[in-house]
Model the fold of this input.
Amino acid sequence: MQIQVEQARPLDEIMMQRALVQAKLAAAMEEVPVGAVLIDHQGQVLAEAGNNCILDSDPSGHAEMRALRAAARALHNYRLLGTTLYVTLEPCPMCAALLVHARVARVVFGATDFKGGGLVSKYQIGNDGLLNHGFSVTPGVLGEQCSQILKDFFRRRR
Done:
Protein backbone atom coordinates (compact mmCIF):
# COMPACT_ATOMS: atom_id res chain seq x y z
CA MET A 1 0.00 0.00 0.00
CA GLN A 2 1.30 3.46 -0.87
CA ILE A 3 1.66 6.04 1.89
CA GLN A 4 -1.10 8.64 1.83
CA VAL A 5 1.04 11.79 1.71
CA GLU A 6 -0.81 15.07 1.78
CA GLN A 7 0.49 18.49 0.74
CA ALA A 8 1.15 21.13 3.38
CA ARG A 9 -1.66 23.55 4.21
CA PRO A 10 -1.38 27.23 5.21
CA LEU A 11 -1.97 26.49 8.91
CA ASP A 12 0.75 23.84 9.02
CA GLU A 13 3.73 26.15 9.46
CA ILE A 14 1.98 28.15 12.17
CA MET A 15 1.17 25.03 14.16
CA MET A 16 4.65 23.59 13.60
CA GLN A 17 6.08 26.81 15.04
CA ARG A 18 3.99 26.13 18.16
CA ALA A 19 5.33 22.59 18.28
CA LEU A 20 8.87 23.99 18.03
CA VAL A 21 8.16 26.15 21.09
CA GLN A 22 7.24 22.98 22.98
CA ALA A 23 10.42 21.31 21.74
CA LYS A 24 12.51 24.24 23.01
CA LEU A 25 10.80 24.06 26.39
CA ALA A 26 11.63 20.36 26.56
CA ALA A 27 15.26 21.08 25.66
CA ALA A 28 15.44 23.67 28.44
CA MET A 29 14.54 20.85 30.86
CA GLU A 30 17.25 18.61 29.33
CA GLU A 31 14.64 16.46 27.60
CA VAL A 32 15.04 15.40 23.98
CA PRO A 33 13.56 18.42 22.16
CA VAL A 34 10.40 17.11 20.55
CA GLY A 35 7.18 19.10 20.64
CA ALA A 36 3.62 18.33 19.59
CA VAL A 37 0.38 20.25 19.06
CA LEU A 38 -3.03 18.67 18.45
CA ILE A 39 -5.82 20.66 16.78
CA ASP A 40 -9.44 19.88 16.01
CA HIS A 41 -11.06 20.02 12.57
CA GLN A 42 -11.70 23.77 13.01
CA GLY A 43 -8.06 24.53 13.77
CA GLN A 44 -8.52 25.03 17.50
CA VAL A 45 -5.62 23.87 19.68
CA LEU A 46 -6.72 21.00 21.91
CA ALA A 47 -3.37 20.30 23.57
CA GLU A 48 0.34 20.85 23.23
CA ALA A 49 3.28 19.20 24.95
CA GLY A 50 6.96 18.43 24.81
CA ASN A 51 8.89 15.32 25.70
CA ASN A 52 9.02 14.57 29.42
CA CYS A 53 10.46 11.05 29.65
CA ILE A 54 13.44 11.88 31.84
CA LEU A 55 11.82 14.16 34.41
CA ASP A 56 8.81 11.88 34.82
CA SER A 57 10.84 8.65 34.59
CA ASP A 58 8.29 7.62 31.99
CA PRO A 59 9.33 5.83 28.80
CA SER A 60 5.97 6.77 27.28
CA GLY A 61 6.44 10.48 27.99
CA HIS A 62 6.78 11.38 24.33
CA ALA A 63 5.36 14.71 23.20
CA GLU A 64 2.75 13.02 21.00
CA MET A 65 1.58 10.74 23.80
CA ARG A 66 1.33 13.62 26.26
CA ALA A 67 -0.61 15.85 23.84
CA LEU A 68 -3.08 13.12 22.91
CA ARG A 69 -3.63 12.17 26.56
CA ALA A 70 -4.30 15.79 27.50
CA ALA A 71 -6.75 16.28 24.62
CA ALA A 72 -8.59 13.05 25.37
CA ARG A 73 -8.98 14.06 29.02
CA ALA A 74 -10.20 17.54 28.05
CA LEU A 75 -12.72 16.13 25.55
CA HIS A 76 -13.71 13.19 27.78
CA ASN A 77 -13.22 10.94 24.79
CA TYR A 78 -10.40 8.61 23.84
CA ARG A 79 -11.33 8.98 20.18
CA LEU A 80 -9.85 12.12 18.67
CA LEU A 81 -11.75 12.08 15.39
CA GLY A 82 -10.98 14.77 12.84
CA THR A 83 -7.85 15.95 14.62
CA THR A 84 -4.44 16.83 13.23
CA LEU A 85 -1.22 16.24 15.15
CA TYR A 86 1.80 18.46 14.52
CA VAL A 87 5.05 17.03 15.81
CA THR A 88 8.62 18.16 15.27
CA LEU A 89 9.97 14.62 14.75
CA GLU A 90 8.45 11.71 12.88
CA PRO A 91 6.58 9.64 15.49
CA CYS A 92 8.08 6.39 16.70
CA PRO A 93 6.15 3.10 16.32
CA MET A 94 4.69 3.42 19.84
CA CYS A 95 3.28 6.86 19.10
CA ALA A 96 2.18 5.83 15.60
CA ALA A 97 0.12 3.02 17.12
CA LEU A 98 -1.41 5.52 19.54
CA LEU A 99 -2.41 7.70 16.60
CA VAL A 100 -4.23 4.73 15.08
CA HIS A 101 -6.04 3.91 18.32
CA ALA A 102 -7.03 7.55 18.89
CA ARG A 103 -8.33 7.80 15.30
CA VAL A 104 -6.30 10.91 14.47
CA ALA A 105 -7.07 12.03 10.91
CA ARG A 106 -3.78 13.62 9.91
CA VAL A 107 -0.18 13.83 11.09
CA VAL A 108 2.19 16.63 10.12
CA PHE A 109 5.82 16.26 11.13
CA GLY A 110 9.03 18.19 10.65
CA ALA A 111 12.16 16.06 10.85
CA THR A 112 12.26 12.52 9.52
CA ASP A 113 13.53 9.88 11.96
CA PHE A 114 15.56 7.63 9.69
CA LYS A 115 16.57 5.34 12.57
CA GLY A 116 13.19 4.61 14.07
CA GLY A 117 10.37 6.53 12.45
CA GLY A 118 6.98 4.87 12.51
CA LEU A 119 5.20 6.68 9.67
CA VAL A 120 7.37 6.87 6.57
CA SER A 121 11.06 6.14 7.12
CA LYS A 122 11.21 2.72 8.80
CA TYR A 123 7.58 1.70 9.15
CA GLN A 124 4.32 2.86 7.63
CA ILE A 125 2.03 2.47 10.63
CA GLY A 126 -1.32 4.01 9.82
CA ASN A 127 -0.66 3.68 6.11
CA ASP A 128 0.25 0.05 5.59
CA GLY A 129 -3.31 -1.24 5.32
CA LEU A 130 -2.74 -3.68 8.18
CA LEU A 131 -4.73 -1.84 10.84
CA ASN A 132 -8.33 -0.73 11.16
CA HIS A 133 -7.58 3.00 10.87
CA GLY A 134 -5.30 5.10 8.72
CA PHE A 135 -4.39 8.76 8.52
CA SER A 136 -2.79 11.09 6.04
CA VAL A 137 0.80 12.23 6.56
CA THR A 138 2.47 15.51 5.66
CA PRO A 139 6.23 15.23 6.21
CA GLY A 140 8.92 17.88 6.22
CA VAL A 141 7.03 20.95 7.43
CA LEU A 142 9.77 23.25 8.82
CA GLY A 143 11.95 20.16 8.58
CA GLU A 144 15.27 22.02 8.71
CA GLN A 145 14.33 23.88 11.89
CA CYS A 146 12.99 20.73 13.52
CA SER A 147 16.10 18.79 12.59
CA GLN A 148 18.47 21.55 13.72
CA ILE A 149 17.04 21.75 17.23
CA LEU A 150 17.68 18.02 17.65
CA LYS A 151 21.21 18.25 16.20
CA ASP A 152 22.07 21.17 18.49
CA PHE A 153 20.72 19.35 21.54
CA PHE A 154 22.71 16.17 20.93
CA ARG A 155 25.84 18.12 20.00
CA ARG A 156 25.70 19.88 23.40
CA ARG A 157 25.22 16.56 25.22
CA ARG A 158 28.26 14.88 23.63
About this structure: The chain has a mean pLDDT of 95. The chain has five helices and five strands. The helical segments are 10-28, 53-56, 63-75, 93-102, 143-157. The first helix runs from residue 10 to 28.
